[in-house]
Write a structure and sequence with these properties.
Shape: globular
CATH class of the domain at 25-145 and 236-277: Alpha Beta
Radius of gyration: 23 Å
Order of helices and strands: HEHEHEHHEEEHEHEHEEHHEHHH
CATH topology of the domain at 25-145 and 236-277: D-Maltodextrin-Binding Protein, domain 2
Strand order of the largest sheet: 7-6-8-5-9-11
Structural class: alpha/beta
Number of helices: 13
Helix content: 40-55%
Distance between the termini: 83 Å
């Protein structure tokens, strides 16, 4: 009897040890953003810490900065193929592969964070987001894992007072905002963070947008160009994505999947709060160093809006899935408008109080 009990106990311990070993997960995560950058870079390291804590150390995330394993533009293909099992980026990076991708990252004159997340989590946003990758044949699971507040809309060497002032400029700009600028006569490039300063310094580009004031300050744009324009009409909110290889995701147990999704939601909360908290000091520092903080005049804002409407219409006609996503988002926003217009103070009113 004692011998039988010992055999059963040994067998149970062996199974238990094997189960514990299988519960451990290592995500080798290539990121599109240098981890040294505030918010944009640290969101992934925050996620790594959070998911490690809530999993009791069973889920570990090893972060690889841009180019360490793959370049930013290769992340989607690398995760899909299994070259790496996870990646961190913004969907706008895949615009050339899937025209609708930028709609899941940032939209010109688009929703602010609360409205965007409402559509993503409680509208059809996340279903359409995953459908985009599935229908395009990418073997990935997507999760929102960071949110940025509005970005600046560009750094320029001289004032831009009318649409004609844009013609002939070369500018680094991301996503659908680049399509708007292209229609206004701007040559657009999608350079990674590490290459922007050098391009400005050498005169390869005349203007640039990258992110929020605290990040742009870190990248040193104000050392070369002194006109920083607001508001960020092209990126009122930016969503960041965690991509996990679908095989890796499907092999996880439910607890691991839930821990990753929960940690990402915690990162969403922290990133938007941190982003809002850091900008005003960066803007004060910029002004002290001679930067002109300029709010676009009404003529320019109307021009950007009219041009964006044209771009959205053209993209909808050219790509059925872009049209599906755009119509769904627009319908949600039209319904949300009843709430927004009644629940929130207009900015112009709030600023006078």
């Amino acid at each position: 009897m004692n011998k039988l009990f010992s055999l059963i106990l040994a067998s149970t311990l062996t199974v238990s040890t094997a189960t514990q070993a299988s519960d451990k997960l290592l995500l080798k995560t290539s990121t599109a953003f240098p981890s040294s950058l505030p918010v944009l870079g640290t969101a992934l390291t925050d996620f790594s810490t959070t998911v490690g804590n809530i999993s009791g150390g069973k889920i570990k995330v090893k972060v690889y900065d841009p180019g360490k394993l793959v370049s930013p533009t290769e992340i989607l293909d690398a995760v899909s193929s299994g070259k790496v099992n996870s990646g961190f980026a913004g969907a706008g990076y895949w615009q050339g592969k899937m025209p609708a991708a930028p709609l899941f990252s940032s939209v010109p004159f688009g929703p602010e964070a609360g409205e965007y997340l409402a559509w993503m989590y409680h509208g059809n946003g996340m279903k359409l987001y995953q459908k985009m990758y599935d229908d395009a044949g990418y073997n990935v699971k997507v999760t929102i894992c960071g949110v940025l507040p509005p970005e600046t809309s560009g750094w320029f060497a001289k004032p831009i007072e009318k649409p004609e002032d844009l013609k002939g400029l070369n500018m680094r700009i991301y996503g659908l905002g680049a399509d708007v600028m292209s229609k206004l006569g701007v040559g657009t490039l999608k350079l990674p963070a590490a290459e922007i300063f050098g391009a400005l310094e050498k005169g390869a580009i005349d203007a640039a947008e990258f992110s929020m004031p605290v990040i742009d300050q870190k990248l040193g744009f104000s050392k070369i160009v002194k006109y920083n324009y607001f508001p960020g009409w092209h990126q009122q909110t930016t969503l960041l994505e965690l991509l996990i290889n679908k095989k890796t995701w499907n092999e996880m147990n439910q607890e691991q999947q839930s821990q990753i999704e929960t940690a990402c939601k915690a990162t969403v909360t922290n990133s938007i709060a941190e982003g809002e908290a850091l900008q005003f000091d960066a803007m004060k520092n910029a002004k002290a160093s001679g930067v002109n903080i300029v709010y676009w005049n009404d003529t320019m804002l109307k021009t950007f809006k009219t041009t964006w409407n044209t771009v959205a219409e053209e993209q909808s006609k050219a790509d059925p899935f872009f049209n599906e996503v755009w119509q769904d988002m627009s319908t949600f926003r039209e319904g949300y408008k009843l709430w927004k217009d009644n629940a929130y103070l207009p900015f112009s009113t709030a600023n006078k109080l």
